[in-house]
UniProtKB/TrEMBL annotation:
Taxonomy of the source species: Eukaryota, Metazoa, Chordata, Craniata, Vertebrata
Parts of the chain that traverse the membrane: 12-35, 96-120, 132-154, 183-203
Membrane topology note: Multi-pass membrane protein
Superkingdom, natural source: Eukaryota
Protein known as: LHPL2 protein
Cellular component terms per the entry's GO annotation: membrane
Main localization, broad class: membrane
Organism name: Ceuthmochares aereus
Regions annotated as coiled coil: none
Protein family membership: Belongs to the LHFP family.
Protein location: Membrane
Keywords: Fertilization, Membrane, Transmembrane, Transmembrane helix
Amino acid sequence: MCHVIVTCRSMLWTLLSIVVAFAELIAFMSADWLIGKAKPSSSEEVDNRTGGSQEPYHPTLGIYGRCTRISHMQLSRRDTLCGPYAETFSEIASGFWQATAIFLAVGIMILCAVAFVSVFTMCVQSIMKKSIFNVCGLLQGIAGLFLILGLILYPAGWGCQKAISYCGHYASAYKLGDCSLGWAFYTAIGGTVLTFICAVFSAQAEIATSSDKVQEEIEEGKNLICLL
């Protein structure tokens, strides 16, 4: 018989697992890893000739994507174009970024699988006498290691030609040059920290769902058990 067990700790672990998976996925897909040095568009240069003020924009560069501004003939129309600059894996700008993409992708796939499984832990707490919480916590720890490897390798690719075109000639491995770090990089770091927090907190979720109070309510014949 399926017993639906919901506790504060197990629900918090489930929500954190889902948030972490989405945060890492969004960061990975974003082009806002590096914010390039300010560049005026051609239309803004025309404005300067006519006495207008210059409003530089900052192109952004991700692991495999980028955002840049395209100016049209009309001075009032400026479109920001975002999309992948690499159509294939081999076209990613740096070998270090290729490795980063692999490590992050593996870590994110594990996190997404754990987030999916975590939803069903309300009904199923163990498989083959193994606690799902403990297994998921172990997987989250492994995913966190993959994420760390990816984030460590990522700055080593700042010396590639693509990054130099955005960050200037002073850019090199682990040196930003004229660039600054975007929100996606910080989100990836924050998600990695939360991944390890989730891995540790999974043990608390397992303790909460197997407590004596839960066992007492199961023995009383309750199918829906909610504990604070």
